[in-house]
Amino acid sequence: MAAEIEIQLLGAMAVRANGETRELPKSRKTRALLALLALEPKHHSRAALCEWIWPETADPRAGLRWSLTKLRDVLPEGSVDLLEANRESVSINWRGVQTDIATVTALLEAPDQADLETLIEYEDRFERGPLAELDTGATSEFEIWLEAQREAINRLHQQLLAVLIGRLAETGSSEADAMALDYAREQVTLDPLDNSANVQLLRLLLRLQGQQEAQATLERMRERLSDAGLPDAELLNAWRSLSSSAPPAAPIGLIEQRAELESPPATLVDPVTHRPLPSRPSVAVLPFEDIGQHSSGGVLAQGIAVDLSARLSQLKTLFVIARASAARFSLAEHDASTIGRNLGVRYLVHGTTQRTEDRIRVTVNLIEADQGVELWSVRADRPIGDLFEVQDDLANQIVSA
Questions:
Q1: Fewest beta carbons within 10 Å, which of 51, 92, 153, 159?
Q2: What 8-state DSSP symbol labels residue 24?
Q3: Alpha helices in 336-386 (DSSP H)
Q4: CB neighbour list of residue 161: distance below 8 Å, 6 or more residues apart
Q5: pLDDT tens figures, 84-119
Q6: What is the pLDDT of residue 162?
Q7: pLDDT tens digits, 256-294
Q8: CA dihedral in degrees (127, 129, 134, 138; nearest 10)?
Q9: Among 186, 249, 245, which Cα is nearest to 219's?
């Protein structure tokens, strides 16, 4: 049976009661509270909610009570209760409430059985950056959690787009083809360095708009890979396979690659082994591993890596590989030299996080990729409230090392 209440987290936040959209309070902290409860389906202690969202308020519990009252007032009389709350904890009333994110996730578990119009309807909700209105200036811990949730929603959007492209391509109509092409462009916009998305777009462009448009797009894709320090051999191999039925004339910018494009696939030289490293010290921040038992430890580990990459990227003395590219590799699955060659960097940063209720321990290692030698390691053990200071210290020490 469908839930009576839906919390809309895609696009503009709202609550839907029996199909009718109910506007939420303008308060960003109230909306942040609803998002936190909806995306973390468990009982949250009032003390933890106050620490995350009302850290600097004179009476944080009063702020929490006010927001809970405003959220209850969103629903019309006679509806199911949106919240379950007692003196110690607060949660969503999941017996009568669903989120649109949970609905999309369920649809993607069996995409072939999902109604195409329903998939399109939910894709339309990804109308702007996820949870865009929740920049509350709250604690660093909440901001890291929020960034991780945005990353997860973007990945969900990419999965939905991939399903839609495939489903629309099956229909064979010109209208469906046009929609599939739009979705393919959107998928590449979300992650310009994803080769599978790039190849999908090239395939559709070749079929619907011809080789000239596809080649021009290929050149832009190669430029983006080059700017991120990534090889384009995989993309070129895919292009050769796609265009083999009608070999294209080389466009401007690919003249030097004519022999490479026209040679048999087996003889294509992998540019990774010949491409010089950037003149500046080059580094990739790999995903961090959570080794603790805290429920938000994984989110914290991801957030630390994201923030360290962003902070290091601001330094003109370093060349930092794009976060989306580095996130595809981990030392648990690949050796350091392989990662270094694939990303085109000299150094790798990776580490672990471990947190308790009020403290965080971060261990960071700097590795020389080619030899797999650990050059430097440091451990920071601080109160959770000092998280931004910890990240600044780590970034400074990495640069020094």
A1: 159
A2: P
A3: 336-343
A4: 123, 183, 184, 186, 187, 190
A5: 888 899 999 888 888 999 999 999 999 888 889 999
A6: 92
A7: 343 344 433 333 333 333 344 555 678 889 988 888 877
A8: 180
A9: 249
